[in-house]
Amino acid sequence: MKVCGIRLGLGTPGPCQGVLNTREPTISWQTETVKTDWIQDAFQIKIKYEKDPEFTEYDIIKSGDSQWVNWPGIRLSSREEFSISIRVAGKDAPSEFSEWSEPVKGQVGILSNEEWPAKFISLEDQPKVENNPPETLFRKCFKVSKSKSIKSAKVYSTALGIYEVEINGERISDDYLSPGWTTYESRLLHQFYDVSQYISDDENVIGCRVGAGWFSGRVGFEGGLSNIYGDKRAISLQLIIKYSDNTEDIVITDQSWKSNYGPITSADIYNGEDYDANLEISDWSRPGLDDSEWLNVEEGENPTHIEPQSFPYVRQINKITAKEIISTPSGKSIIDFGENIVGFVKIHTTAPKGHKVTLKHAEVLENGELGITPLRAAKATDNYIFKGDERGETYHPHFTYHGFRYCQVENWHGSLNIDAFEAIVISTSMKQIGDFQCSNELLNKLHDNVIRSSRGNFVSLPTDCPQRDERLGWTGDIAIFGQTASFLFDTTSFLNSWLQDFTCEQMLNEKGNYNSPPSGVPPLTVPDIIKYTDHSWGPVISAIWQDVSVILPKALYDSTGAVCILKNQFDSMEKWFECIPKLEGKVLWDKTKVKFQLGDWLDPNAPSDEPEKASTDETLVADAFMFKILTIMVEVCSRLNLEVAYTKYKTLCDRCKKDFNDEYITPSGRIVSDSQTCYALAICFDLFYSNDQLEHAGNRLTEIVKKARFKIGTGFAGTPFITTALSITGHLDEAYSMILEKECPSWLYPVTMGATTVWERWDSMRPDGSINPNSMTSFNHYALGSVATFMHEVIGGLKVLEPGYKNFEVRPQPGKDMSYCKVSHDSPYGKILIEWSLNDKNFNLEATIPLNTRAIIILPDGKSQNVGSGKHILACEYLESK
Ligand code: BGC
Questions:
Q1: What is the mean pLDDT of residues 811-828?
Q2: How high is the mean pLDDT of the chain?
Q3: Cβ 465 under 6 angstroms from ligand 1
Q4: Nearest 5°: phi and psi at 709?
Q5: Nearest atom (ligand 1) to Cα of 783
Q6: What is the largest CA-CA distance in the chain?
Q7: Would you say the CB of residue 784 lies under 6 angstroms from ligand 1?
Q8: For 591, phi and psi rounded to 5 degrees?
Q9: Contact present, 407 and 334 (Cβ < 8 Å)
Q10: Cis peptide before 745 (omega within 30 of 0)
């Protein structure tokens, strides 16, 4: 028996996984043992603080808790490093404790601006640039004491822009686009790097390169805006060298640094990067360079609150070899990487000095040529000018990223060699914790596409798309996809950070800093840049989108059991609920007071240039979601023991249900709009009063679905729910028919068209191979991939019952000709694995239940049993009619 998988706060400790942003992190762990039915009886924690060579052992606690356990120790300091170890005993043998776990190291970041002595330095008199600004280099020489041995060397750094750090000529980390994009007006994240291995025991140089990134680069659609947050590219960094006698040397950014321009002559998130290797300053981050000609820096004000980044950094997560060189009808050469990815291309070749090669990126081809119309204003083009090194030159961009499968190569020197190209895939490097596989290859591909689209749109923040001039934190997209995402990836610390930005935006509006939206209203995108424009969408509030304030914390809570997320977000939830304009005396949206609702956005039946004009009444959709968020708020109040608020929201929730029924549902269960989405929402949100109504609604939904020949008729609102609604009303066969449908619009249609990611529109590419000409057409949008939850819960049969999978349901529901399925999830307590197969009329199941949890297994013959941890092998006769 041993303790493993220790988690501190919301994240897992490790290099580039972020650092702690609290003095009292919660502690979670898993236990491994060969015993079955194991339940923890007690635990003990010991901590070794930085100042103390010995572990401090804390009291044995008699408790089954192994998740989100309160910090037992003394409050930690900024920059403190500590080790923690845990042991446990089970109920089977309460006096027999396991060995102490391997100690796990924790690292606290810098928790207050007062402890951030480093200045923000920028090039002296740096000119303001509107478009595609160049990079700035910064450099500082420092010495370390020769007479003492170094215990540790750590860098805490951030930038106004995006940056990379080198010490003595080597990059200190493989992260990209740091410090990422947050609501900069309120919070800027600092990164942490352990750099002991890069420090030499005499002369050293630390160098930083800073690009404009989201801070001063252009962001936003319809032209966007540049220099939103400021116009200076600045770095702020502290390097702390600790010697074995516990003395410290500190190097901070200040006036003593030198600055210069570098080889990146322009860099922009949307447009790409220009790199002139002839402008490289060799050894710019090494000792020995004469930097007397370098320019001075100026110190600027710290513009915001600096916080530790407590979630994984954006890093290279994969490397893809080029698959094919395509010659286009117009004579162009295009490299096909075989899958639609997010990142950039790395080239290696020789060319004469001054030769310029151009790389243009796109997700699809149209008429055999690069399909760039979906990129809108984003140029997605990198240019590299060779210095003429005969040994070959290697280049990949630093301060941009692209969403692409194809790369058009222009002006290559000599003949194109496929081996000269490689695609670097980047993403916020969260661990994948969920997977699905079944006997249907097309469904497997769909699931792979959902994973690829998650990776591609989790780049520093949850974005809508990775390729066009947008890539924004659209609230509705993650509201719809958050649950699926949290099953597939360890999203907790990442999405929790984004929720903090969400709350910050609400507070900014509350202070009345921006006059467009009413006070306290959350924006449509987080970070919000629309507020700086006079775009007509500035003041828009819409169900689903801003409902994310309630829906996303609930999704994170369900997947982790972390009550702190609910606690932290409760004010934000209440504030949003207050903002919703309601009909006099009713708990329904007042449509006269909103500009418009995005509603069942991208319903395939809506006009393709007016995606909000769905077949389901948009106010009905908004009201159904109002009921949904109220049911969540009632649950949150109960979990947080907020009695008064509980009564308030319970009353509102009951009233909302009544008002919804009065307005939209007939006594027999027919619903206004009579569409796939209205039934899906009412069924899944539990909006009916009687089982008869529910049954009637399920039957009616089935009729509609059959009439549509199983083609999808839902947009953002209905898509996550339609197949589940069919299955819970006893129409599993029809649910399978829908998910297996291949004609457009359907989930498998893009797969049959060769898609390797989830598309924004059901018909982003039309059956004739043409790109949907509407300006909003991406081939990498995760929202419609939320159907993966149906695959996990219904086909695979894994459904959470008690938050954090303390208790869950194992209920595979085979259908159509599906003969095999395997679903897995690394839950907070350990790995859950469900694997089933159908052999003739025999259904076989193997389910692995983690320690300290319980599950109810329901077989297709209807028999159920409640089980504890261990591997369970069960079988039954399978009768299709069940
Ligand atoms: C985005 C969507 C987003 C929508 C909101 C689009 O441009 O790509 O995914 O939710 O706007 O209206």
A1: 96
A2: 95
A3: yes
A4: 55, 40
A5: 9
A6: 86
A7: no
A8: -70, -15
A9: yes
A10: yes
